[in-house]
Amino acid sequence: MNVTILPSSVEGTVRAPPSKSYTHRAILAAGYADRATISDALWSADTRATARAVELFGGDVNRDEAGTLEIEGFDGTPAVPADVIDCENSGTTMRLVTATAALADGTSVLTGDESLRSRPQGPLLEAIADLGGEAESTRGNGQAPLVVTGPISGTSVSIPGDVSSQYVTALLMAGAVTDDGIEISLETELKSAPYVEITIELLSAFGVDVRRTDDGFAVDGGQRYDPAGGEYAVPGDFSSISYPLAAGAIAGEGGVRIEGAHPSAQGDSAIVEIVDRMGASVDWDRKAGTIDVSADSLEGVSVSVEDTPDLLPTIATLGAVAEGDTRIVDAEHVRYKETDRVSAMADELGKLGVETTEEHDSLTVHGSESDLEGASVDGRGDHRIVMALALAGLVADGETTIAGAEHVDVSFPGFFDALEGLGVSLDRS
C-alpha cells in the first residue's frame, strides 16, 4: 500500500496504542502460566506471531470483541511444536520463543521473513548450547532458520549485552520454569537496558522474581507464572506515542493531546523530554496519563539512543525540522532492526531534501541546511521508518508518497486513522 501525505496541521486527541513490548512479554508469560487474561493487548502482526508460537507450544489464545486475550498456557512445559514456528517479521518473537523452544523435550524449527532471516541470533544460540541444549543456524551464520533441541539443564551462562537485550529477556523468562534457574553474566555493557527493566516489571506482575547480580541477572527455577487475580493489563506504548507527539511538535499549532501515557519502565518515554528540550510546548500529566503538545520553533540537540533505539527515526525527523544540528549517537545497534534504520533514515530523508551525515554509530541531521520537499520514499518494510517519514510529510512542500505503508500494522495498526483524526489530509492506494 502507498500512502500520500499532504502538508497538514494537526489538532485534537489521540489515544496511545498498547505497548508492543509489554504485549509480547505478556502473551508469552501467559503461555508459561496455566491460564491468564490479558487486557488492552496490542493485536498486531508482530504480537499475533507470538500468540501463534504459544499455541504451537501447546497453549490456546482466544481474543474477544473487546480485544481481551484469554490464554490457556502450557504451564511451564512447552510441547514440541507440530509445525515450524514462523515469526514473520518479529525479532522479539523469534528471540523470546527460541529460549522457550530450548525447554521442550525435542526439536523446534523457527524461521521468519527475509528481513528477520538477516538479523543476528548467534549469541542466544551459543547460550542455549552452553546450557546443555542444541541450537544452530541452518546456514551456519547465526541467522534464522534456527533448529533448537532441548531441554536445557545448565544454570549459568555468559552473553554479550551490546547486541540485543532480548537475549537476556528470553533467558530470564525461560529460566524461571527450569529446575535450577539461570544466572546470566554480561560480557559487555547492556544496550537497550530499559527493555530488560520492562521484562523484570512484567515478570513481577506474573509472580516471578528476578535478581540483579554484580555482572548481570539471575532468576531462580521452579517458579510459577501466576498474575494477581489471573489478569494483566498492558500499558500504552511510548515508542508509538513518539509519532503523535512529534506530529504535535512540528505541526500542532492547535495542540495535540495524547491519552494513555501512564509512566512505566519504558525507556522510550524519554521522547517527552527530548521534544521538550528541542523547544516544543509539552505538558505530561503523569497521574492522568495525558500529554499535551503544541508546535514551536525547534532547535537541534544531541541524543543518545543507546537505551532507546526505536526512537531514532522519530528523532531524525524532528531534527529535519529543527534549526541547527541534531546528533543521534550510540546508534550502532539500531542498524540491526527490521532494516538498518540509520542508513534508511539518512537515505529516505535525503530524498526529501534533508542533509545528513552518517557514521558507524551516529546520524547527524543538519536541519538548517535542509528544505523539506515532497517526494516518493520507501518505508523499507519497516513500520518505524514508515511512520517517521509520514511525520516529515506533514511539513514538506508538496506531496510525500510512502511505499510499503501497510507495515504500520506491525506496531500501530491504526496509525493512519489516527493521523486523519488529527486533521491530516492523506490518500491510501
Automatic annotation (TrEMBL):
Gene3D superfamilies in the cross-refs: Enolpyruvate transferase domain
Keywords, comma-separated and alphabetical: Amino-acid biosynthesis, Aromatic amino acid biosynthesis, Cytoplasm, Transferase
Residues involved in 3-phosphoshikimate binding: 20-21, 25, 164-166, 192, 310, 337
PANTHER family found in the cross-reference section: AROM/DEHYDROQUINATE SYNTHASE, PENTAFUNCTIONAL AROM POLYPEPTIDE
GO terms of biological process kind: amino acid biosynthetic process; aromatic amino acid family biosynthetic process; chorismate biosynthetic process
Residue ranges, annotated region (Disordered): 358-377
Catalytic activity: 3-phosphoshikimate + phosphoenolpyruvate = 5-O-(1-carboxyvinyl)-3-phosphoshikimate + phosphate
Subunit description: Monomer.
GO cellular component: cytoplasm
Subcellular location: Cytoplasm
EC number annotated for this UniProt entry: 2.5.1.19
Family: Belongs to the EPSP synthase family.
Name of the protein described by the UniProt record: 3-phosphoshikimate 1-carboxyvinyltransferase
Protein purpose: Catalyzes the transfer of the enolpyruvyl moiety of phosphoenolpyruvate (PEP) to the 5-hydroxyl of shikimate-3-phosphate (S3P) to produce enolpyruvyl shikimate-3-phosphate and inorganic phosphate.
Binding positions (phosphoenolpyruvate): 20, 91, 119, 166, 341, 384
NCBIfam families (UniProt xref): aroA (TIGR01356)
InterPro entries listed in its UniProt record: Enolpyruvate_Tfrase_dom, Enolpyruvate_Tfrase_sf, EPSP_synthase, EPSP_synthase_CS, RNA3'P_cycl/enolpyr_Trfase_a/b
Boundaries of every Enolpyruvate transferase domain copy: 8-419
Active site per UniProt: 310 (proton acceptor)
Molecular-function GO terms, alphabetical: 3-phosphoshikimate 1-carboxyvinyltransferase activity
